[in-house]
Every structure is written in structure tokens, then in C-alpha cells.
Specification:
heterotetramer, A alpha/beta (251), B alpha+beta (610), C alpha+beta (83), A: 251 residues, Rossmann fold, C: Mth169, Chain: A, three-stranded antiparallel beta sheet, 2 helices, 3 strands, elongated, binds adenosine-5'-diphosphate
Amino acid sequence: MSSEFPLIGDFSPAPGAALSGARIGVVTFPGTLDDRDAARAVRLAGAEPVALWHADESLQDVDAVILPGGFSYGDYLRAGAIARFAPMMSKIIDAANSDAKLPVLGICNGFQILTESHLLPGSMIKNDHLKFICRDQVLRVENNATAWTSQYATGQEISIVLKNQDGQYIADEKTLDALEAEGRVAFRYVGWNPNGSRRDIAGISNEAGNVVGLMPHPEHAVEAGYGPDHTGTDGLGIFTSVLTTLVGGTK
Amino acid sequence: MTAEAHKFNIDTVEHAATTPDTELPWAELGLKQNEFEEIVKLLGRRPTAAELAMYSVMWSEHCSYKSSKNHLRQFGEKVTEEMKKDMLVGIGENAGVTNLGDGWAVTFKIESHNSPSFVEPYQGAATGIGGIVRDIISMGARPVAVMDPLRFGAIDHPDTARVMHGAVAGIGGYGNSLGLPNIGGEMVFDSVYQGNPLVNALAVGVMRHEDIRLANASGKGNKVVLFGARTGGDGIGGASVLASESFDDSKPSKRPAVQVGDPFAEKVLIECCLELFKGSLVEGIQDLGAAGISCATSELASNGDGGMQVELTSVLLRDPTLTPGEILMSESQERMMAVVSPENVAAFEAVMEKWAVEYSWLGEVTDTGRLIITWNGETIVDVDPRTVAHEGPVYDRPYARPEWQDALQADTFRASEAGAGLPATGGELKAAVLELMASPNMCDKSWITNQYDRYVGGNTALSAPDDAGVIRVDEETGLGVALSTDANGRYSFLDPYTGAQLALAEAYRNVATAGAVPMAVSDCLNFGSPEDPDVMWQLAESIRGLSDACMELGVPVTGGNVSLYNQTGSTPIHPSPVVAVLGKLDDVARRTPSGWRNDADGQAIYLLGT
Amino acid sequence: MPRIVVDVMPKPEILDPQGKAIVGALPRLGFDAFAGVRQGKRFELTVEGEITEAVLEQARNAAETLLSNPVIEDVVNVEVVAD
Amino acid sequence: MPRIVVDVMPKPEILDPQGKAIVGALPRLGFDAFAGVRQGKRFELTVEGEITEAVLEQARNAAETLLSNPVIEDVVNVEVVAD
Ligand SMILES: Nc1ncnc2c1ncn2[C@@H]1O[C@H](COP(=O)(O)OP(=O)(O)O)[C@@H](O)[C@H]1O
């Protein structure tokens, strides 16, 4: 394979990228699908994507980590259940809980891995209609005080891509009440709840706000022509948000 | 001899030579008397059980194209130099390869998985996607998209829901898990497909020119390796006579008639193969589809320059009771076979370990010109691989225009005669349009396409409900491809020659209206029994029509698939040549979506054509 | 309330991708005692009132027709469980 | 070969979408005896050799850590089955 032309979505930082100098890890598990897409989004946001392999134990000094979407281990047993035990996950769990509060974003299967890892509360079960669903989905940003949402306004509506089979977010009432009370609901579905998620929750954060998980896919809405309705780029804000967080700024 | 060697009553070549009169179940395995006699002539003795297994699957209609070969030649003959100029690999390999320029190449192919999808719709359709994707990987390409032309029985028939929902879920379940966007397809309901749904699947892949790989085993001393899933009894349920290799009365153990797909295993296999290609670690590679190891060993060997020696006990098994013949015939999914030079063995193994893919070394390439397969060192197959893979029987089946064709064509609808039924007022016209739009074959397909991931990969520039799917190949230049599949069984039934041409014309138009230059054609010819002269005529006419039209439009056929015996009892399906056209866009940013645009207020509408 | 439990397993000769993935994961977690895993389904049917032979017969029928796919699965158990 | 069976069911308070779909389908097929259905998982773990208490303990641990997610599921059964 020649290296001068990236094969479709290969990880190679675009020339002149990484202006911020930020390095963002994108983890690949066996069965991960959207790792190239997440790396592209990182690049378009101006940072450098760093490929992290599930079986390795070094975080390679990255400044933040993305657990991308897909079907790790085929989603067999439960979505995210087997991937959660990868060596790389132990490192990520430690780094996310450490004083440094490594920013971690879980998208779709990544969100499922985060709940299985107990970095985020609750769990995901099959969509209420039992089918895989792929559609353009409107979300409301409920909290822009997390590491991954600072570039949005609270209450802002964005349109990104939703695609999942096990996307119904559930938690017990106490947990749901606490999430709402603490402002940890990061995103809600607007207009239609596509999978039966409790209280229309599409994404949540941990207490510190450095760990965020969401079911829909912001990385599929970063380039005009390849996202919702052939034009949408609303997802880019997630990736620029973390860069802002890393340089210590806010909007 | 070890106990292992005695696990079965092994029918060795030596044994076969001394027992010429042993009764063999060639008829049960689907061979005709003349075919069996031909095998005996080729070998100069009766075949062993294992050889019989290999010949029977490789000489089946499905693998040998024995009824269609004489007609399919036209695809190779009716081509001009101009049509060949971008064809890097033509018909005959796993899939054809077309030059896209800038060092890029694209490969695509369409195949059927019709009867497995009727028996078990979810798994049948899922493994259909799996199989076509492996064809694309084995060319050295990264698969980038899939499509699924589907045909089911009447929408209100009680069995249609079972088949249709199962097949759609299976295509989604497998394709979505592979990370391949589904960029288009078809959905047709017609009672002719009631007992014979058509589940066709297309995959497209891209590669750099230097990454093109072919299925051949050359270089004496190079190692032969089987990797991916373990071999089970899948797909040999119908050939249970082989369960007792000595053909005595011992009871065959249970063999599944259906295959269950493991999309996760296939996704890992894709990444693992791409890593092998990147490191130039394989000399030749072949996917295992129908006819499994029989097909892979005989094709690799006969496309190479020598022979091959394989020890069959080295195959990793899921079911330890499989006999040698069954191992050779098994259709277990998610397996690949490769030829690796000795200096790359360690690097090859490192890639397998990284992806946790199981593998086993089976043997090596030789210069004997023979394919020799042993079982614990005893020879059970000793054949010229070309006689298995390429020089099977070819039939000139009789065909004739059916007697009923004239009556069928004469049965037309004339507005003047049936005038009373035509809409006369604006209101009636509106009602007629609404009725048409709500008919099963015209209405919205988003209930299907919403179950398919169209975004994964981030390169989908057009997908449903557009006329063609468009995929970006090069992120820097915007170079991309457009694809459409079409067929109309009713047109083809009325006139197979013109019907096939119309299918091509429609797919060609869909690609052109998306803004692409049509470049290549792949086709899946779904027909009834070739032993019926009416059906054989439909097949012959369709191929003649399609090849003439390809010549006329200047687009070559680079590959495809023939699916025969699609019939219930003696009633065949309508002739259904599904045609896929691939086109090129220099910059996918210039693609044209179909449908009115929101910002198009005040723009003029033109109707082009006659 | 008494329930009827229906157990459905993939046929032994059929590939079970889920079981295969679990077998691969177990040793990584230090569980080294298991040679194989197969994953099937367990259904619990609740009944209002008494579980008569007729109800049990319905459960057996439902197990064969709706709860399992006879092409790839076996119903291995239909029994009444009290608690 | 003796096996260890592990049964995992969705927690009672969690709505089970698959069970719900089955409850809806049963009466359409003429099965009217059932008030509710829940769908869980049944794992069969095979062991080479004898099933000792230590092996059974591993199975219990695997059931709690990998085979079930305590947020949504309960392990309802871990037992040895001979056949
Ligand atoms: N089985 C299918 N899989 C994927 N896409 C499909 C399928 N059936 C239809 N489509 C897509 O839905 C859209 C509408 O299909 P159709 O009504 O057949 O279009 P047309 O009549 O313009 O050919 C097209 O984009 C087509 O590719």
C-alpha cells in the first residue's frame, strides 16, 4: 500500500493539522467500525489522531481518548461487555478517574463500553422496536459544561447521525433523578425518541464532566456532503470542544 | 498407521486402484452417469471418496457454469480494445478490477444467495453478504460498500413476511457489523418469487494498483495456509452419503443444512487480510465459498504454475467427526486460504496472533502439476487440478423460443379498448397516481434502508433514496464511484433479449444521472432450470441481449454470477438478470442527488429523451 | 406466581458465534476451567391462574413454533417452576 | 459430558422489549394462556474433566462478572447438568 494516498479513511494526519498540538487517542477493538471516522473528525477539528490498540497498555501520552462506535466482539453477549475487559480499558478507566481527569468520549458502542466499565451509570438494552435504526437525529445539548460540549450553547439543537440496535438507555429512577439533578444529562433526543431511552436521554457525563457517552454519532456529521441531509456538520463541535477544554479555554 | 488414520475407513488412491468395482454414490452427489465416466477416464481409475466429493461439488452447476459457459463467452468476445482499456482484471477471477486513475482501482461483483435465504432467511441473506465481501477481499481490496437487490413473493402471502423480514434483518445484521455502508438495492414483490425469493448481494472494494492480488499458487516451496473460522459440517447436509467414506451402512452423523454467519469473525478477517496485503505477506489468496477447500485448493493450484500438496488432518475442525470428503466439501463461512513464501511465515503468523485469528499450515506449492491431498500421510486425492477447477463438463443445452411466447406478447393492454378504466378528470388522475405510488413495488423503501447503516466509513456521498449509491474513494481528490443495480423480471419474461438490455440501460442511466461516467458491469443471472428449453432460451437470449447492449454502450462485463434452478416444481421464476453498473466520478462533490431540492424554487423542469 | 420456563439452545452442530466469543474472553479474565460455551435463550412465561396440562401443551407448542427457530435451534426444556 | 448451566434474566423492574414483543405475538398465533413473557439467556459451559467445587466457583464468578450485567440482569441459576 503506498503511503502518499491514504486508503479510504486511513489514519494519517492532514498536513498542517494539529495546530493545537493536541493528540487524541482513538481506540480500536476487534469489531470496531467507526475508528477511521473518529480519527477523521479529530483531524478536521485540528488535532492529531493517535491509533490505540485494545490489547496495548500504553496510552501514548494522549490528551484525550475516544471510544468509537461499532460492534466490538460482534456485540455478542452484551454490547461492550467483552471489550470492557481489554488491557487498554484498564488504563483508560484509571486515567479517567485520576486527578488529571483524562477526557474520554464514548460514541455508541463506546458509550456501551463506558457503562459496562462503570465509568458512566446505567446501561443499554435493545431498542424498544427491536430493529437496527439508522437516521438523521435531532438532539438538544442539555449541558455545555462538560469536556466535550463546551462549544455548544446549552439548549442548542443539533442534527447528527443515529445508528444502533441496542440503544435504549436505562437506569433506575434514583439514578435518573440524580443525573438530572446534577446536570449530567448531556444530550436529549428531540422530536422523536428513536429507541425508547428513559427520559429521552441520548448522552450523559460523569460527575467531573470529563467522561461523556452518547448513542448518536457526531463523527458522521463533520464534513458537508457526508453527513445528515448531505450538508450537516453539527457534530464537529464535540471534537473542537475537547480541544478548547485542553487549552483551558471556554467558549 | 495411527489410530487417527483408522478413525474412518479411509479410501486411499491405492485402495481405489485395487477396487475398481466399488459402488460409488455419484448419483446422490448430483453427478450424471456421463460425468462420472469422464472422471474415471481422467483418473484412469475409479475416484476415491474424497476425489468424488471434490469433483461432485466443483462440477455442480453452481461452481462449473456448465450450462451457461457457452453463452457467457459472449461477454468476453463482444468487447472492443476501447472497452478493455481500463480493465485491469477481467472475468474469471474472483471479481473484475477496473482502473480509476491516480493509481486507484475498484473491484465489484454481484452474487446470489437465493435458496439458502428461503430456507433460513436471516442466516441465508447474512451469509450472502459475507460471501460476496470475501470475494472482494481476496482481490486485495478494502471492501467499501454493499448493495442488496431483493425479490420476494406477493406482499400479502403469509410466507412473504417471514422471508422478507428475515432477509432484510440478516443483510443489516451482517453488513452493519462489518462497517460497510449499504448504498442501494431493490425490493420487488411478485408471486413468481413466492417459493424462490431472490436475495442477491453486491460488494465493492477499492485498492491501489500494486495491491491487486490474484487467486494463484505459484513458487515451489511456498506454504499453503487456511485461516479464519474452523471448518464445520456446514452446507453438507445434502451430501450426507459421504458421512461414511467407505460407503458401508454406518450411520451418518448430523450435518447442518444451513450455515450460520459470524460477522464479527468476518470483520476481523477483513482487517487481518488488509494488514497482510499492506505487508505484502501473501503471494496468492482465495476466499472459501461454495465448495470450500475443494474449490480453494484446486483453483489456487490450477491458476498457479505447478501443483500443491496438502495434509488434510491439519485443518482445524469445529466438528471432529467430519470425514475427509466432508472437510473438502464443507461450506463453513469466514475462511480464507493463502499462499505464503517461507520467509514471510513468521510475519504472517504475527498478523494472525494480533487479530486472534486461528490458522493452520496445510502444505505447500509443488512443481508436480498435481494436486495431492493426504490424510495422515496416505494419499486420498491425486488429480490434475485443472480437471477439477476449469475443465469440467460443458453443456450445449437445447433451447427454443417457447410456443407460448407469441400469445404472451399478444396479450396487451390497449387504452382504446379498455378506455373506461382510464382516469378522465384531474381528481381521477390524482387518485390513480396515489394508488400507483402506494403499490408495494413503488412505495417508500425507507423501512428497509433505515435498518442499514449508510454512513459508516464517512465516504457515502449518495445512498437511498437516490438513483445510485456514490462512495468517495480518495479523500484528497474526491475521486469516487457510483453504483446502481436494476432488473425487471416482467419485461424479461415478455422479451428476454430486450429485457436484459433494459436492465442495463436503467442501471446505466441511474449511474449517469448521479453524475458518473459508467465504466463496468457485473450481473447476476437468476433463472429457472436450464434443462427446460424454454428457460434455456430465456437465459441465452438474456446473455445475448446484455452482451450486445454492453458493446453498444461501451461498458465491459467484468464479472458476475449465474443462479439456475430457481423454480417451484416445474414453474420457473421470471427471467431475472440483475445488472449492476459502476461509474466513476472525478470529484464526488459534483454528484447529483435525485429529487427536488429545497433551494430549487423557480428552477425549470425538463423531460429528456423520447 | 408459577412460571413455565422454556430453554432454547443453538443446535450442537451449528456454529454459535456468541458462545465462541465468550470462550475467547473467559481465559483473559482468569477463568480457565471451561472448554466450550454455548449461548441460548431462556424464556419465562407467566400464567394467570393454574398451570394445567392444556396450558403446558400450549407452552410446548409456542416453544416449537414461535420461541425457537427449528432450523437452527432446539427446545431443550419446557418445565414448570414454582417460587 | 457434564455441563454447567448459567441462567441470566432481565431484572423484574426492567421492561424487556423482546419479552414484550413475544407477549404481543402469542395471542395472534392462538396462544392465549400467557400473561407475560420475559426473555433471558442460558449459557452452557462445558468442562474437560470433572466439575469440582473450584470449577463451579469459577462459573459463579464468571456469571456475575462477565455473563451478566448487574445493572440490568440477575443471575438466577448456576447448576451442574449431567446428560
Ligand atoms: N433492498 C434494498 N436495499 C437497499 N436499498 C434499497 C433497497 N430497495 C430499494 N432501495 C433503495 O431505495 C431507493 C428507492 O428504490 P426504488 O423505489 O427501487 O427506486 P427506483 O424506482 O428509482 O429504482 C433507491 O435508492 C434504492 O437503491
